[in-house]
């Protein structure tokens, strides 16, 4: 996969990205909002990349794609994750030095039509903690509709969450 936007490239993972993936995972927001995606060592990041590259080949499991600046700097990722039979969830992270510049919104907006067409996904959900205002803004700016705000499971714990849905207007055959 390769998606080009004005400022970004969304592409496939490769083993040479392990250090950048590790560094990007260590910021405080990532530790707070998605602690299962924190990699303390390059080896741990490399094992995860290897697993995710296998998901590309099988078409099953999480579909995670790095987001790069045009100069090749890895600034985060976008992903589509199957969460139940026929249900998918979007995810994204922009490393702390690159936040508040609209990169997450740009990446998610470009990613959604491509990944949903590729997998025949009619709708995809977005779930975030209610106090994660940056993620709330990304989802809303990308055309998601809020379905629920209240207590729900998040990372295995009862937390105050927002649940959103994005629908494709058409599915390519």
Main traits of this protein?
173 residues, alpha+beta, 5-stranded antiparallel β-sheet, 3-stranded antiparallel β-sheet, 5 helices, 33% helix, globular
Characterization of the model:
This protein has 173 residues and is of the alpha+beta class. 33% of the residues lie in helices and 34% in strands. The strands form two sheets. A five-stranded antiparallel sheet has the order 1-2-3-4-5, sandwiched between helices. Strands 6-8-7 form a three-stranded antiparallel sheet, with helices on one face. A hairpin with a 4-residue loop joins strand 3 and strand 4. It is globular, with a radius of gyration of 15 Å. The model has no long low-confidence stretch (mean pLDDT 94).
Shape: globular
User: What would you call the structural class?
Assistant: alpha+beta
Strand residues, percent? 25-35%
Averaging pLDDT over every residue, what do you get?
94
Number of strand elements: 8
- How many separate helices? 5
Record the strand order, biggest sheet: 1-2-3-4-5
Flag low-confidence runs: none
Helix content: 25-40%
Order of helices and strands: EEHHHEEEHEHEE
The largest β sheet comes out as: 5 strands, antiparallel
End-to-end Cα distance: 18 Å
Instruction: Determine Rg (CA atoms, Å).
Output: 15 Å
């Amino acid at each position: 996969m390769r998606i080009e936007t004005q400022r970004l490239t969304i592409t496939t993972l490769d083993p040479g990205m392990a250090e950048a993936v590790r560094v990007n995972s260590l910021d405080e927001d990532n530790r707070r909002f998605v602690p299962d995606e924190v990699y303390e060592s390059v080896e741990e990041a490399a094992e995860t990349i290897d697993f995710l590259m296998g998901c590309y080949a099988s078409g099953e499991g999480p579909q995670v794609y790095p987001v790069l600046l045009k100069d090749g700097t890895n600034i985060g990722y976008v992903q589509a994750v199957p969460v139940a039979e026929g249900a998918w969830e979007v995810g994204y992270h922009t490393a702390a030095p690159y936040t508040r510049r609209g990169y997450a919104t740009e990446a998610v907006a470009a990613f959604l039509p491509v990944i949903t067409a590729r997998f025949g996904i009619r709708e995809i959900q977005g779930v975030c903690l209610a106090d994660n205002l940056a993620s709330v803004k990304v989802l809303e700016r990308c055309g998601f509709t809020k379905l629920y705000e209240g207590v729900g499971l998040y990372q295995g714990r009862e937390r105050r969450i927002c649940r959103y849905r994005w629908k494709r207007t058409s599915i390519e055959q």
